[in-house]
Structure formats: structure tokens, C-alpha cells
Amino acid sequence: MKRVIVIGGPTASGKTSLAIEVARHFGTEIISADSRQFYREMRIGTARPSPEELAAVSHHFVADRSVTEPLSAGRFAEEGLHRLREIFTSHDLAVVVGGSGLFIRALCEGLDEFPEVTQEARRRVEEIEAREGLSGLQRALREADPAYFGEVDQQNGRRLQRALRVCFTEGLPYSSYLNKVTPRSFQSHYYALAPERAYLYQRIEKRVDHMLANGLEEEARSLLAYQQLPALQTVGYQEWWPYFREEYPRDRAIELIKRNSRRYAKRQVTYFRDFRAVEDFTEIAAQMEAVLG
């Protein structure tokens, strides 16, 4: 059976160098599941692997498209599966690395597929919320999909809205679209770096300072015309837009980048806590070699 070694973890934890070590050891290639490193215009703020790192091992989905060509998790899974099939023609293993949990899950496990929501469905949900608030959304979902209503966090208005938009689009329950993903033909082995929090935050501080010294502000300014695109709604870029509009000083932008990076890292730690925690390359190599026999 073909296998995928997945390496996750929070920003600045050392995923890139670890993935390269693993890929070189097993003589294989790397697929990046970092949802911002896809875009060639975003080099500094995404901590893209250096030219030397990219040359050390074959990488895929790094700077291979423009910010004007957004790549959704579903589309990434389609393209990623095609690339994995190509890698598996000459390798039994592939490495997937990144901090974007949704994109990792889309590729390695699959996502539920929903219909494209219609404007009419959006309008109906907006009218219910405007007229009745959260209780109205709860009532509508209980009527449209009692099965999902019994499972969902009923206080989470955004989830209620999302489910209702799907229900109203084709008249089918939201729950009817769940758990229908296509099984993968490979086995995934999940690992994550989980450094001690104080050490991680120190690395984040140093990384942001390094980005600033290497031209992060100038890179963000060059992307000002694209600030509304989904790819630019991310830490390291979105904090510059108010500064460029003179809404707060430069020091505040830098402070927010560091703060938001720490918050993002904290969410990533939570997401990856179900992965097998490792500290270095030797642990993954030993465990995988035991699996491979």
C-alpha cells in the first residue's frame, strides 16, 4: 500500500526543515498543504521555503499560481490527488506538510461535497436572521433538517446559517450531504511538532522580525490592490491595510502581526493535538521504518 507521511504543527515550529529531512531520508517528494504558500506573490509573509530548501527536495504547490487564482480546499484535494498518483508511480511514500488543517484533511481524507448555494437561499436565510435572530435560525433548521439540528451547536449562528443555505438550495437536508467522501487509496500517518509554548512564541517573534528585515512591509504594499482577495485575508498581510490607510501607526501593525501569529499558532496547536507528537526526524523515521518492515 502507498503511504503519506503528514507533518503538521503551528507556524514557526520547524515543519519545513523536518519535512525535507523526512523526504530526503525516504527519497521522495513533498506536497505543501500551506494554503498561503500556493501564491507566488506572497513570499516573505508566508515563510516560503528558501531556494536552497526547494532545491533539496522536489516540492509541489509552492508558488505555483497567482493570488488572482484562488485555490479552495476542494480543488486542492483534486489537484493534490492527481499529483500523488504521479509521485506514487515511482515512490511508495510521499510527504505532505503544512499548517492548514482543512487542506490536509481535504487531501488525505476528503471533504463532504455540497451544492453551490443560490442567491435565493442566501436571501431566505438573511431574512430569517433579520426577522427572528438566532431563535429563528434554530426553528428553521429544526424544521428543515431535524437530524443535523440534533447534532449541531445550536448557539453557533454561522453553522446554522450555513446548513440552512444548503437546505434551501435544493430542498434537501444538509445532513444528506454528509459522510459521502470517496475513500483514499493510500494510508496516511499523521505527525505534528508541538514545541513548548514559550519557545514557540519566541520563534514567532524572531520570525516576524526576520520578515520585517527582509521586506514584509514592502511586499504587503505591493499587494495593496489585491487586499480584498481571500488569500490576503491572512496574518502578516491584513494587519498592514489599516496602517496604509493611516488608521494606526506602523508599530501597531507589527504588534498585531505578532499577536495574531501567536493566536493562530494556538489554534493550530489545538487542531493538531490528535496527530502523533514528535520532536525530530529520528522519531518519524523509526516509526515509519517499523511500519514498512
UniProtKB/TrEMBL annotation:
Query: Mind telling me which residues the site (Interaction with substrate tRNA) is annotated on?
Result: 100, 122
| Gene Ontology biological process terms in this record | tRNA modification
EC main group: transferase
Functional summary from the UniProt entry: Catalyzes the transfer of a dimethylallyl group onto the adenine at position 37 in tRNAs that read codons beginning with uridine, leading to the formation of N6-(dimethylallyl)adenosine (i(6)A).
Q: Which UniProt keywords apply?
A: ATP-binding, Magnesium, Nucleotide-binding, Transferase, tRNA processing
Molecular function (GO) terms for this protein are: ATP binding; tRNA dimethylallyltransferase activity
Full protein name: tRNA dimethylallyltransferase
What InterPro entries would the database entry show? Dimethylallyltransferase, Guanylate_kin-like_dom, IPT, P-loop_NTPase
Subunit notes for this chain?
Monomer.
Note down the stretches annotated as region Interaction with substrate tRNA: 34-37
What is the catalytic activity of this protein? adenosine(37) in tRNA + dimethylallyl diphosphate = N(6)-dimethylallyladenosine(37) in tRNA + diphosphate
- Reported cofactor(s): Mg(2+)
- Annotated organism of origin: Neolewinella aquimaris
Q: Does the keyword Phosphoprotein feature in the UniProt annotation?
A: no
Chain residues that bind substrate? 11-16
Judging by the UniProt lineage, the source's domain of life is Bacteria
Q: Which residues form the Guanylate kinase-like domain?
A: 2-90
Binding-site residues, ATP: 9-16
Query: What does the record give as EC number?
Result: 2.5.1.75
Keyword Thylakoid recorded: no
Family indicated by similarity? Belongs to the IPP transferase family.
